[in-house]
Amino acid sequence: MKTITLREGKERSLLKRHPWVFQGSIAKGGGDVGETVRVQAADGRFLAWGAFSPASQIRVRAWSFDEAERIDAAFFQRKIQQAVAFRQRLALDTTGIRLIHGEADGLPGLIVDQYGELLSAQFLSAGIERWKDVIADALLAATGGQYLYERSDTNARQLEGLPMVTGWLRHPPVPEDGSHRATEVTIHENGWQLTLDVAEGHKTGYYLDQRDNRGHFARLVRRLGCQTVLNCYSYTGGFSVAALAGGAREVTSVDSSGPSLARASAHVALNGFDPAAHTALDADVNGSLRRFLEEGRRFDAIVLDPPKFAPTAAHAERAARAYKDINRLALKLLNPGGLLLTFSCSGGVSADLFHKIVAGAGIDAGVDGYLLQRLEATADHPTSIYFPEGEYLKGLSIVRK
Ligand code: SAH
């Protein structure tokens, strides 16, 4: 067993069960890609078992803080069973569920979503990559599923020095005609039907973390009687379907991805709403908000769900300006009494900072608002109490005065 010895004083974060060891904390030792290593303090005290990642700034990710624990196939089977059992206890009323959420489930670098009978996974760290086969089998065993699609095509893989990989990882025997199961699937969420393609969609195929917020939005649109709705960064139109379900008369989805917008329009029809009530706009959000202002357009409700502007705290300042800008424009575009749902999924922007950014946007827009609710990711995207960085999605629902 290879050993990693930390510099003096660098044991503190592992003692607090934070699972990452940065390159600069290591005094000596190394390992192969994804190899299990013993991490010890400068005085030789055991701290954790972890996976070594020679290419990454996060040089070791902890598997366990228990010296007696063995990191073997049974370890991964246990972790996966525990994660799946937790989701079952949540008894979510949906067929799209996040089964494994990285650090929160004790499996740093593993993301798995279940979409009906399909599992879609991202293997994002060297340690997870090394145990891929064991993990794939354990996922099928824990869920009773047969289909597992791999979407290891994100930048995080590059930081780990791993190649991009996509395709079926598990599939029942392919019939003689060679046909695989389609990568498209329909899920149920908040009583709506939504389709996605695990091969073509963003991330694993869909943004399940916003499920509750989409439901929240539908209820608020109804309660407040919002008629005209602007869904910015709409992706496949989850919030647009929510708006129509809430009784909106006119919904505009804006996204820079044509295929996502095509699916958004299909979702309107699939859920029995009038296609004429929905406009899909393939455009940049910032430019569109400015144009709407110039044209004097106003909306009863606006959703802002942008991509991650700040991957880490180091990007927070530039990201803050970008968030402030779109929130200022959106607040100006709201009719008095209108509703704004605004989000940040940047790990580098805390909930507190995000609130301050939106407050600043309100001052610049000359608009005050009632803060209705603080929003976060759904319960199947939990965070570990030891890992506050895991809390990435934060949002506010605001009613303009
Ligand atoms: N709200 C969506 C998820 C949004 S993900 C849901 O509920 O499913 C962020 C989206 O922003 C992606 O679909 C991406 O294509 C889009 N996007 C990124 N940059 C953009 C830009 N500058 N203008 C418009 N859309 C953008």
Number of strands: 20
Q: Helix tally?
A: 11
Number of domains: 3
By CATH, the topology of the largest domain is Rossmann fold
Q: What level of helicity do the residues show?
A: 25-40%
What is the radius of gyration?
23 Å
Ligands bound, unique = S-adenosyl-L-homocysteine
Poorly predicted sequence stretches spanning 5 or more consecutive residues: none
Structural class of the secondary elements?
Answer: alpha/beta
Distance between the termini: 63 Å
CATH level-four homologous superfamily name of the largest domain: Vaccinia Virus protein VP39
- Examine the secondary-structure arrangement and name the CATH architecture of the largest domain: 3-Layer(aba) Sandwich
Order the strands across the largest sheet as they lie in space: 16-15-14-17-18-20-19
Q: Kindly state the mean pLDDT as a whole number?
A: 97
Q: Name the shape in a single word.
A: globular
CATH class of the largest domain: Alpha Beta
Largest sheet: 7 strands, mixed
Strand coverage percent: 25-35%
Description of the molecule:
The longest helix is centred in the first third of the chain and has 18 residues, at 73-90. The strands form four sheets. Strands 16-15-14-17-18-20-19 form a seven-stranded mixed sheet, with helices on both faces. A six-stranded mixed sheet has the order 2-6-5-4-1-3. It has 401 residues and is of the alpha/beta class. The model has no long low-confidence stretch (mean pLDDT 97). It has helices at residues 12-15, 73-90, 126-130, 132-143, 155-159, 211-224, 238-245, 258-270, 285-295, 316-333, 351-365, and strands at residues 2-6, 20-22, 26-28, 36-40, 46-52, 58-64, 96-101, 110-115, 118-123, 147-152, 165-170, 184-189, 192-197, 228-232, 250-255, 278-282, 299-304, 334-344, 369-376, 394-400. Helix 6 (211-224) packs parallel to helix 7, helix 9 packs parallel to helix 10 (316-333) and helix 10 (316-333) crosses helix 11. The radius of gyration is 23 Å and the shape is globular. The chain has three domains: 3-64, Archaeosine Trna-guanine Transglycosylase, Chain: A, domain 4 (Roll), CATH 2.30.130.10; 73-187, RNA methyltransferase domain (HRMD) like (Transcription Regulator spoIIAA, 2-Layer Sandwich), CATH 3.30.750; 207-400, Rossmann fold (3-Layer(aba) Sandwich). It has eleven helices and 20 strands. Helix content is 31%, strand content 30%. The N and C termini lie far apart (63 Å).
